[in-house]
Amino acid sequence: MNYIDQEAVSRQLPKRIAINKIIRGLFFGSTLFGLVVLAVLLYDVITDSWGWINWNFLTSVTSFDAANAGIIGAITGTLWLMIIVGPLTMILGVATAIYLEEYVKEGRVRTFFETNISNLAGVPSIVFGLLGLTVFVRMLGMGSVVLAGALTMSLLVLPIVIVASQEALRAVPSYLREASFGMGATRWQTIKNVVLPAALPSILTGMILAMSRAIGETAPLIAIGIPALLIPLPSGLFDSFTVLPVQIYYWTIDAALNAELASLAAATIVVLLVVMFILNATAILIRNKFQKRF
Amino acid sequence: MSQVSVKQNAKVELQPQGEKAEAKKEIVYSTEKVNLWYGKTHALHDIELDQREQEVTAIIGPSGCGKSTYIKTLNRMVEMNPDVKVTGKIYYRGQNIYDRRFPVEELRTRVGMVFQKPNPFPKSVFDNVAYGPKIHGIRDKKLLEQIVEESLKGAAIWDEVKDRLQENAFGLSGGQQQRLCIARCLAVEPDVILMDEPTSALDPKSTLKVEELVQELKAKYSIMIVTHNMQQAARISDRTAFFLNGEVVEFDKTDTIFSNPNDSRTEDYITGRFG
Amino acid sequence: MSQVSVKQNAKVELQPQGEKAEAKKEIVYSTEKVNLWYGKTHALHDIELDQREQEVTAIIGPSGCGKSTYIKTLNRMVEMNPDVKVTGKIYYRGQNIYDRRFPVEELRTRVGMVFQKPNPFPKSVFDNVAYGPKIHGIRDKKLLEQIVEESLKGAAIWDEVKDRLQENAFGLSGGQQQRLCIARCLAVEPDVILMDEPTSALDPKSTLKVEELVQELKAKYSIMIVTHNMQQAARISDRTAFFLNGEVVEFDKTDTIFSNPNDSRTEDYITGRFG
Amino acid sequence: ACGGNEEASGDNAANNAGGNNAEETNEAANNNEAANNSADEDISGSVSIDGSGTVYPLMSRIAEQYMVEENPNVSVEVSRAGTSAGMQRYVEGETDFANASRNVRDEEIEEMEANGIENMEFPVALDGMTIVLHPDNDWATEMTVEEVESIFISGAVSDDDTVMWSDINSDWPEEEINTYGPNENHGTYEFFIDELIDGQDLKDGTNLQQEYPTLVELVNDDENAIGFFGFGYYENNQDALGVVSIDFGEGNITPSLDTIDLEGDYAEYTRQVFTNLNVDAARENPAVMDYARYVFEVADELAPETGFAPLPEEQLQEQIEELEEIN
Amino acid sequence: MAQSTSVSALIKEKRQKSKRQKLENLVPAFLFAAASVSVLTTVGILLTLIVETAMFFSEVSFREFFTSTEMQPLNRNNPTFSILPLLSATLLSTVIAMFVAIPIGLTTAVYLSEYATESARRVLKPIVEVLAGIPTIVYGFFAFTFVTPVLREIIPILDRTNILSPGIVMGIMIIPMVASLSEDALSSVPNSMREGAMAFGATKFEATVRVVIPAAISGIIASFVLGISRAIGETMIVTIASGSNKNLTFDITQSMQTMTAYIVEVTSGDAGAGTTAYYSLYAVAITLFFFTLAMNMLAKYISKRFREAY
Ligand SMILES: Nc1ncnc2c1ncn2[C@@H]1O[C@H](COP(=O)(O)OP(=O)(O)OP(=O)(O)O)[C@@H](O)[C@H]1O
Ligand SMILES: Nc1ncnc2c1ncn2[C@@H]1O[C@H](COP(=O)(O)OP(=O)(O)OP(=O)(O)O)[C@@H](O)[C@H]1O
Ligand SMILES: [Mg+2]
Ligand SMILES: [Mg+2]
Ligand SMILES: O=P([O-])([O-])[O-]
């Protein structure tokens, strides 16, 4: 056989290598696009909010007078929301994940649950808002209170927590389970003593990410009807409330009424982003710390 | 160093005992016409095999022939795979373990298992060994300490870890981990120990240590060991079963298998014609 | 059946040629003091090894000793791992391939590689074989067909696949896939073929076919083969290198290695004391 | 039991009002009342308000001042879905107040009767419908009422509703006019249609928006824009908008806090803005009552700050007296 | 072992006394109950949407809703209900978003999976993923106060609210999703494929285009479909930046209202229950629900087929 002209191959080679280099550069640029957008976005909100973030802003209630307005109400509301959403989704999500990963394993039941969960994860958040409006606010008569918002938000992020917990459980190598079963441990003993401790860091990482999603969601809360003006801080599950993203929403659209409100919106965005950043950094820290354990 | 002396003790003790006891050795496990399917894959065909008390049975055969599957049927760990179907009977000390009412947790307490890859829990050395007794309800700290110490001694690793009982087991070397897993097994005082290629992930030195340990444990336990290393089988086992494509091609005294096999496929395998 | 005759042809042809040519066999690859690190893992230590034209060199050694790493340095595929550092020199036909200016793509057209697990592309049989020539600019359909046919014949698989050239290669059996991968290699007319445990995922029959094929290919190509099956090394290679912990313990004529090794570690390994 | 758990019941009232569980709210509110009869400054609870976006700036301003300066124990929630949308909630008994930039409609009264809701409608301030332009528009700053109408009424100038400035006045540029306004949710829309163009259709292609701020931005962006909304949104954006002085027959009048008056020069484009009070809520929930009183006490003072002309003080005083009669 | 008999005897004794079996049976029951919550959620969503949608269609015909072109739900004299204006806006914003997300997402995925060194990947990937974690309200603000004004410098006829700018920003938001799912697909192509290709002297680009991408194609397409689904369901960006014009048009410079933004408009401030306009909310929502559901199932189907390849 002598079909391949090595000379020709050598001659073409520089061109092929050059193409590869150019593509590499282009694709790298494309990867950096995200970074550029991020930088522009941060620049935009930081310049818009310059000088507005101070202690007063963080600790005052909202006001028409932009100079005196603050976000303590939204912060308190956000915290109240998290107090319910966190434990509730953690319990439900991890329990569901354990059920699917450790008990049903394979078969129709699991396929049914998993299909349901993955579809639920794809349902637009505004539709969850409608569910909350119809069931919690109206049917159960709660009104647009903390509990209604928290339950709506919990259902919204539950699929995320379930999927993250499932992945965490799946990442626990099966030889650890085998070792435990091999000792005569029952299923629940194995889960409690071996599987859950091993999966905990990843579960926590997933939880934090789910929480940061819940903190940033706006649409479902608007749908359940958060008032545009609300001053007293919520102090219980049945109080009206507002949260950071909703505050941003109202200030953004009210900016035409009073241009300074746009700066307040930007300032609130900065606060929200800082919170998200802290949460995500924590998640990454946990992930890195426990990454290579098996 | 203490290892070496232990080994010599073991040899001195065991060799004669092995020969003397030959006649009266009881059958611990007996397998009758076992067939196994993973979904539609027929992985075991009509397996018939016995395991005697205080003997080492080696299982050899090429990759995928069903060695691991077989020993996992013995403590029903194979059921951890979804969609497994087993037919036939396996008697452990006279009881059919595939009987519905047979309590599988109890079986697994009586039958220890050591895996191919050392699989300590991500816990301290102490907690690894204490795990079994704890889940079976032993809470007394003193007693646990005693059990841990004796088990680690039994697995010939006490001297190496006695000062690091509270350290994470992942910090041990591969060979130490494997012996720790054996100690973990011993802590619940099993009757039988199943080993699935326990040395295949180990370096030559650690392999040697584990082999010696197996020889020593034989005095008290019945051992079934899967290995892909034929020389290892020849060195440490009393009987050898040769598996091929899910069937037992030949099961006999180790000497016979290696010196004078009945079946030409056994010979081909042993002489390295395939696998 | 045709396979068997091929094999005999090969034997008849090659044995004498091998002996006659001994003296004038040129060195294709020579490795000088090669060291390699994966990050901080020092995987190869001062490797020195030659590959001669129209010879089969076997590389044996226990798992993790650096066999795969070594042959991947020969076509610089090892660089696909991140964080690899290589020092020392490897000459391919007189050129140092670790020279900055040496075009790695050209090296790889001259040096084919066959992997442990058959890795056909998820394309048709035809496209698999035509892939290499296409990349190198051959577009002429007639010519491609000719190349494909000859390569498949060269890999002794033509008869089995000639009627299913347009089917997806994943439909072939493991052994056929492996020979297809060899054919794919042949299609770019390499000078050297590197094989990393090419039969370890194959059944005994397919193994035999591939072994025969290697014997046959030796007439035209220089071959370096990694194997964990010592009998295989003994059967098909002219020279054997024994690796241990990233070092070449011994490199010599295959006969010498297996009948009269210099180093006691080689002997221990060959007689199955470890690994 | 009623007097005993004063704190708990107070909380309850705060929590429940605003939902549609009227019964529970009432009960809680009753407890509250019993507890608070002696000491008025202990009033607590919550007040919910929805409705007009036009009135929102004024009402939320009042609410803010009430909560900050007058009674921090009361939570006043103000939303702004628009007059019609807010009225729909109100007639279902979901809110205590419904702000409106028009009079309550007969259908709405019927529905209230059907739902057993007793309503009182109170004017709170005066608003001038303001016709706005792009700030650079220097030709159309003075128009007659008829000219305004011919711009907005469908079919007034051409059948396909493409109207050029030059169609209105030949001196003006030959460019198409783009019309803007609030959408059907809003009382402002209804007032404009019903009172200013006598119920005729609005020009096709009029850009109708839910949010006033959006409208301001849109007009600010379009050199050929003309739009309408309440004076407040113009006043707060004077540098972004131009305004049309209207000739009602006696010379051009520019809307301002001085001219907006039911009897004044801008009277034809002046309207009252209202709030509707659920009388039962006022009876049962002292917070609602207290807040209502407060609204009329400060309306005249805060109206100008948010772009409304104040009602005469006597009228507000009368309204307070009307309130007192509720109990 | 001195106490050897005692240990196994102890174990036996404890086993018999323990209430383990009871717990062992209770646990799955509790877990099942927890798992049912997600199913109940779906049932809840479906029931709410279907019941109220039925109310809507008892007042407005299917025909009007799906074929007429006018949407004026609150017009007092002659309310009209057509989903087409909302659909056209949703469609346009989605198409624009995918024009941004697909090319950038895919090339990013290829760079990360094929070209980037491990350390570069470790830095770049989280940065790309940060974009996915930014709340949509922030993107809305960004689109409205930054992207639109910038675009208007370039395209003067662009309205202050329009569908182009939120479309682009939505695309940016979706980049990480397309990138990371495509990257998963690419990196699950076994390395042996790449090695096979490169061992012939193919350049990285050749190996990627001819072997890796074709092998991962269904996973990549599934990522596009999921991106589309996400774009259809996205709410805040369009609510803030595209206005509320319900015109049936394909002019991307104009203000339009998507299905999601319509839902926000009607619910914000809490529309009164019981009116046709209120019920229309559910008719729009159920359309939205089925659209996204169909997309998610499609994506799942495609990627499942792809996984079977190996
Ligand atoms: N979970 C499973 N599902 C389906 N098939 C399986 C499963 N586990 C093993 N098999 C199949 O059963 C057969 C026996 O597998 P087994 O693991 O017992 O082999 P083995 O002899 O232990 O091989 P090795 O030496 O590689 O460990 C093989 O054909 C394997 O593919
Ligand atoms: N990508 C990698 N990163 C880090 N270390 C590696 C990597 N690949 C291999 N090694 C290490 O380099 C050493 C040699 O590995 P190599 O794969 O060459 O062994 P091998 O002889 O081919 O073994 P086997 O018979 O199991 O294939 C091993 O210790 C291995 O752990
Ligand atoms: Mg096995
Ligand atoms: Mg290797
Ligand atoms: O918001 P409106 O005042 O126009 O109803």
Automatic annotation (TrEMBL), chain A:
Q: Which Pfam families match?
A: BPD_transp_1 (PF00528)
Which keywords does UniProt give here?
Cell membrane, Membrane, Transmembrane, Transmembrane helix, Transport
Q: Where in the cell is it found?
A: Cell membrane
Q: Which GO terms describe its molecular function?
A: phosphate transmembrane transporter activity
Q: Where is the ABC transmembrane type-1 domain?
A: 75-283
| GO terms (BP aspect) | phosphate ion transmembrane transport
Q: What membrane topology does the UniProt entry give?
A: Multi-pass membrane protein
The portions of this protein that span the membrane are 25-46, 79-100, 120-137, 144-164, 194-212, 261-286
Report the principal subcellular site.
membrane
Q: Into which family does the record put it?
A: Belongs to the binding-protein-dependent transport system permease family. CysTW subfamily.
Protein name, entry field: Phosphate transport system permease protein PstA
Lineage of origin: Bacteria, Bacillati, Bacillota, Bacilli, Bacillales
Automatic annotation (TrEMBL), chains B, C:
Q: Does the keyword ATP-binding apply?
A: yes
Task: Give UniProt keywords alphabetically.
Answer: ATP-binding, Nucleotide-binding, Transport
State one Pfam family annotation. ABC_tran
Please give the Gene Ontology molecular function terms for this protein. Answer: ATP binding; ATP hydrolysis activity; phosphate transmembrane transporter activity
| Source organism superkingdom | Bacteria
UniProt cross-references to Gene3D superfamilies, sorted A to Z: P-loop containing nucleotide triphosphate hydrolases (3.40.50.300)
Please state every residue range assigned to the domain named ABC transporter: 29-270
Q: Name one GO cellular component term.
A: membrane
BP terms from Gene Ontology: phosphate ion transmembrane transport
The record's section on InterPro entries has: AAA+_ATPase, ABC_transporter-like_ATP-bd, ABC_transporter-like_CS, P-loop_NTPase, PstB-like
UniProt-recorded name of the protein: Phosphate ABC transporter ATP-binding protein
Please name the source species.
Answer: Alkalicoccus luteus
Automatic annotation (TrEMBL), chain E:
User: What is its biological role?
Assistant: Part of the binding-protein-dependent transport system for phosphate; probably responsible for the translocation of the substrate across the membrane.
Q: Where in the cell is it found?
A: Cell membrane; Membrane
Q: What biological-process GO terms show up in the record?
A: phosphate ion transport
- What family does the Swiss-Prot or TrEMBL record give for this protein? Belongs to the binding-protein-dependent transport system permease family. CysTW subfamily.
Q: Which UniProt keywords are present, listed alphabetically?
A: Cell membrane, Membrane, Phosphate transport, Transmembrane, Transmembrane helix, Transport
Instruction: Describe its membrane topology.
Output: Multi-pass membrane protein
Query: What is the species of this protein?
Result: Alkalicoccus luteus
Q: Which residues belong to any copy of the ABC transmembrane type-1 domain?
A: 87-299
Any GO MF annotation of the entry: phosphate transmembrane transporter activity
Identify the Pfam families for this entry: BPD_transp_1
Gene Ontology CC, one term: plasma membrane
From the record, give the transmembrane residue ranges. 26-51, 83-106, 127-151, 163-186, 207-228, 277-299
- Identify this protein by name: Phosphate transport system permease protein
Q: Does the keyword Iron-sulfur apply?
A: no
